[in-house]
Specification:
- There is one protein chain.
- By secondary structure, the protein is of the alpha/beta class.
- It has one domain: Alpha-Beta Barrel (TIM Barrel), CATH 3.20.20.140.
- Helices cover 41% and strands 16% of the residues.
- The chain contains eleven helices and nine strands.
- Strands 1-2-3-4-7-8-9 form a seven-stranded parallel sheet. It has a two-stranded antiparallel sheet with strand order 5-6.
- α5 links the parallel β3 and β4.
- α7 runs parallel beside α8 and α8 packs across α10.
- The protein is globular and about 50 Å long.
- The structure holds zinc ion (2 copies).
Length: 260
């Protein structure tokens, strides 16, 4: 079993910290761990976030706290760990904060590094982050109607898949996290996304993060969305979106029941 989306974000880029994730994976019966960190952790991607920072000082402040390392520190850690004889398979990538305008920057940058996989995720609507407890409500959810937010999320998700920059798409329907209703029927959107995923050969995540971190009642994908992906034979990969070692494989037992 794979956990395809695990972050080192809240800890150091150290071998000891990675081993904590590996030990937790073993306990949960996971034999392949995909470790990634957000592009916003690394100084090399700073220019990509000028839009976010300009949009509001609260976002600029958020971003400055996220910038912690040079990408070289991460590459060094990966090279060091690849020499080890690990008890499970561990592969390495990035979770890229995708936006159409960032594509030229990303094309140049991502080619420079030998990652095993790249996850593309949409994290902002009109340059406003949608999931930050200290400001997203005020800056986004109170200001725009839900339908507009959902439509922009899925429009960007389509562009993300179509960019051909990624091997995997992060939490494809996470915009539901605060349990707001889209205000329109999403069936056609799910169909379009599934067709694009198939055409562009990307894995789609069934991500439990919104379930255990935001208390959304659905474990992973919307059942309707999952069904459409399955019907069209789009490859799905399970992901915990763990931000601490203890959350590796979080709620995979519940996700398993959904597939039975
Ligand atoms: Zn994400
Ligand atoms: Zn993530």
């Amino acid at each position: 079993m794979i956990d395809a989306h695990v972050h080192l974000e809240n800890g150091p880029l150290s071998k000891e910290y990675v081993y904590q994730f590996i030990r937790n994976a073993q306990v949960k019966g996971i034999d392949h761990l995909q470790i990634l960190d957000h592009t916003h952790r690394f100084y090399e991607f700073k220019d990509m976030y000028d839009d976010i920072c300009r949009q509001n000082p609260l976002q600029a402040q958020w971003f400055s706290q996220k910038q912690k390392n040079s990408l070289q520190d991460y590459i060094d850690l990966i090279e060091e760990i690849k020499k080890e004889d690990l008890p499970i398979k561990v592969t390495w990538g990035l979770e890229v904060c995708y936006k159409k305008e960032r594509e030229p920057f990303l094309k140049d940058k991502l080619n420079l590094y030998p990652f095993d996989f790249l996850v593309g995720s949409v994290h902002s609507i009109f340059d406003i982050l949608y999931d930050i407890s200290s400001f997203s409500k005020e800056l986004l959810w109170d200001r725009y109607d839900t339908q507009t937010i959902f439509q922009d999320y899925y429009r960007q998700l389509e562009q993300c898949i179509g960019s051909n920059l990624f091997s995997q798409i992060g939490h494809p329907d996470v915009i539901k996290l605060y349990q707001k209703q889209a205000g329109y029927d999403l069936t056609a959107t799910y169909e379009t996304i599934a067709d694009l995923a198939k055409t562009h050969n990307v894995l789609m995540e069934d991500n439990t993060g919104a379930f255990y971190r935001y208390h959304h009642p659905q474990v992973g994908l919307d059942p309707k969305f999952r069904k459409i992906l399955q019907k069209k034979h789009v490859p799905i990969v399970w992901a915990s979106d763990a931000h601490i070692p203890e959350h590796v494989g979080q709620c995979f037992d519940k996700l398993k029941k959904v597939y039975e």
